[in-house]
Automatic annotation (TrEMBL):
This is Ras GTPase-activating protein 4. GO terms for molecular function: GTPase activator activity. PANTHER family: RAS GTPASE-ACTIVATING PROTEIN 4-RELATED, RAS GTPASE-ACTIVATING PROTEINS. SMART domains: C2. Residues 1-75, 86-211 form the C2 domain. Signal peptide: none annotated. SUPFAM superfamilies: C2 domain (Calcium/lipid-binding domain, CaLB) (SSF49562), GTPase activation domain, GAP (SSF48350). Residues 270-363 form the Ras-GAP domain. Keywords: GTPase activation.
Length: 363
């Protein structure tokens, strides 16, 4: 399972009955410019209860910046301490009420979401504990929920001086989930009277927990960060019009074609990406057939050996490959999707090579 800043979650297939799994799966995710890390969790799937975490690998933005061409290699799994994990978000309204002589700090705890699942039933029994100026107040307990709603209001006498922080802590009877501190009148806190959705951070002083000993294994990864700047649509219109005009006019002897210049100026590493973008562009314009016809006419006009025709990493071959992927993928999902989904849901042993099927698995 992969998590990107605890928001987007991507799950791989399950490899059964092995300590040396091979996935060979590739994912592309769109990250916010302000992302901090990508966490990859190795899980042990359990059909009867919630899945157990074996370990995790955390890929930080700084690590990816040090490898502009991508990182490839083995990374040791680290132990996952629940007390160090972000535990979701809590919805608050913090304001100062009253006159200058008797001001009070009012905090309305509305709801929370994506809390840690700490019970055997896959949920938690969360409540909120508020600390301010030496006093503690608690909300009611919401049973068996990771998306609790409280809508409860708490008030404290405003401390003087006002540097005292309000600490809002999500917890349960067995677990200190996370906390959030608000400098009530200083900069950086919630605006007075406005709803706020702060991210919970690890609770301070967690109770001791059992630790796993020894190596947790390693995970082989290939990771690459690519920054893309997308301009407004009107900035690309002159180029789109020029490309469409060239494709509509077809190949002309003695004319230098723009697609030929793209083929000659792009490197082998980025030619696949250029081909994908061009195929998607002309699919949207309804000119993908004319685009591929022009590419192959220009390819046939080049002096080359017949045995190597269409076997090079040219823009024509990459564009045809990208076209087949874009148009054929929905067909494969429609035809093969239902039986593959059923195989995973039934969790049965599946082997396509008859020579590898053991006698005990035949029945």
């Amino acid at each position: 399972i992969g998590k990107i800043d605890e928001e987007a979650i991507i799950r791989t297939a399950t490899v059964w009955k092995t300590l040396s799994p091979f996935w060979g799966e590739e994912y592309e995710v769109h990250l916010q410019p302000t992302f901090h890390s990508v966490s990859i969790y190795v899980m042990d799937e359990d059909a009867l209860s919630r899945d157990d975490v074996i370990g995790k690998v955390c890929i930080t933005r700084d690590m990816l910046a040090e490898h502009p061409k991508g990182y490839s290699g083995w990374v040791s799994l680290s132990e996952v301490d629940p007390d160090e994990e972000v535990q979701g978000e809590i919805h608050l309204r913090v304001e100062v009420v009253g006159s200058q002589g008797s001001r009070r700090l009012r905090c309305t705890v509305l709801e929370a979401r994506d809390l840690a699942r700490k019970s055997r039933n896959g949920a938690s029994d969360p409540f909120v504990r508020l600390h301010y100026n030496g006093k503690v107040q608690e909300s009611t307990v919401v049973k068996k929920s990771c998306y609790p709603r409280w809508n409860e209001t708490f008030e404290f006498e405003l401390a003087e001086p006002t540097e005292e922080k309000l600490c809002v802590e999500e917890a349960s009877s067995l677990w200190r989930g996370g906390s959030w501190k608000c400098p009530c009148l200083g900069g950086g806190g919630a605006s007075a009277g406005q709803p706020h959705l702060p991210r919970l951070s690890p609770a301070v002083g967690p109770p001791p927990a059992w630790r796993r000993r020894g190596s947790l294994g390693s995970l082989q990864l290939q990771v690459m960060l690519r920054d893309e700047t997308v301009l407004p649509n009107h900035c690309y219109q002159p180029l789109v019009q020029l490309l469409c005009q060239e494709v509509k006019s077809g190949r002309q002897d003695g004319q230098v074609h723009l697609v030929t210049l793209l083929d000659e100026t792009t490197t082998a590493e980025c030619r696949q990406e250029v081909a994908i973008n061009l195929v998607k562009l002309f699919l949207g314009q309804g000119l993908v057939k004319e685009f591929l016809d022009l590419l192959f006419e220009l390819e046939l006009a080049k002096p080359c050996e017949p045995n190597t025709l269409f076997r090079s990493n040219s823009l024509a071959s990459k564009s045809m490959e990208s076209f087949l992927k874009v148009t054929g993928m929905p067909y494969l999902h429609t035809v093969l999707g239902p039986p593959i989904t059923r195989v995973f849901e039934e969790k049965k042993y599946v082997e396509l090579d008859p020579s590898k099927v053991e006698i005990k698995d035949v029945g």
